[in-house]
Amino acid sequence: MAAAPSKLYTAIGLKLISALLFATMWALVRRLSDTTPVGEIVFFRSACAIPPVLLIYALRGELMQALRTSRPLGHAGRGVLAILGMFTNFAALGRLALADVTAITFASPLITVALAAFVLKERVRLFRWSAVVVGFVGVIVMLIPNMNVEHYSAAGIAGVAAAGSILALISAVCSAGTVIQTRRLTQSETTSSIVFYFSLITTIGGAVTLPFAWHTPNSIELLMLVSTGVLGGLGHILLTESYRHAPASVIAPFDYTAMLWALLLGYWVFGELPSTLVYVGAAIVAAAGLAVLFRERWLGLRRAPEGEGTRTPEI
């Protein structure tokens, strides 16, 4: 059953805000990667997310709900995927431009839609599948510049670029799996517990690496490390809430808005200017995501006059 229009718009709004917060966090990770080990960044990103998360839930009277769970193994499984996804994503950001990593990870929403259909048994009709295919074409267009082997060979960084691309793809797969597991957990778990145990498990994953690789941060680096946790924690809360209001296959395409923020932040912070093909691909995937929104709005308007008990077929 499709989500009610009001819940759909709430879910999309939460998703858009979380995309901005995560894009800002990725820019900080990109900046830190020159001096700080990946495991250390993962640790701070996760550990510094816990205090604001607990504070928000304490103010909302949901602190005990954050600690209570009936599915510890479900959280553990999601945590393992999250750790692998976070390590590979942060490692990719240290090897490729911000916009390039974002473009590659756009494969994640496409994988999410497929997993939502096969794992969660959500109804994904022709229109959404078509939007996914169009979005996938956009991703391919954006990846074309990264496939210019001669360019990277001339610069002497062919291996670095290839490794970054592979790491970003692995991160995309893990991200899709995490989204699906989140959707399953929301059937019985509270948002607060999902976010808290995610942060706790990934903190442990990052802490394990600290004895082997540690960089003592200066004051600016420490502020940036703490900020990754705060932004990541708030973004995670909004992301988890969004999947409570609508099916994953509906709101996943709105991950594409992260490309806009990646383009802006990449230029403002790092002076990175993507090629024309990246802009073309970003326009294609954004159009695919917006098409889903307009389609759902149209279906909602058609259902409204028909009253309860009457259902318009989805295509």
Q: How does this structure look, described?
A:
This protein has one domain (5-306). The chain is mostly helical. Helices cover 76% and strands 0% of the residues. Helix 5 packs antiparallel against helix 10.
Short key terms for the protein model shown above:
single chain, mainly alpha, 0% strand, disordered C terminus, 76% helix, 315 residues
Counted up, domains total 1
Class from helix and strand fractions? mainly alpha
Tell me the helix content.
over 70%
The main sheet comes to: none
Q: Total helix count?
A: 15
β-strand amount: under 5%
Tally of DSSP β-strands? 0
How far the N terminus sits from the C terminus, by CA atoms, comes to 12 Å
State mean pLDDT (0 to 100 scale): 80
How many whole angstroms does the radius of gyration measure? 20 Å
Uncertain regions: pLDDT < 50 for 5+ in a row? 151-158, 306-315
SSE sequence, one letter per element: HHHHHHHHHHHHHHH
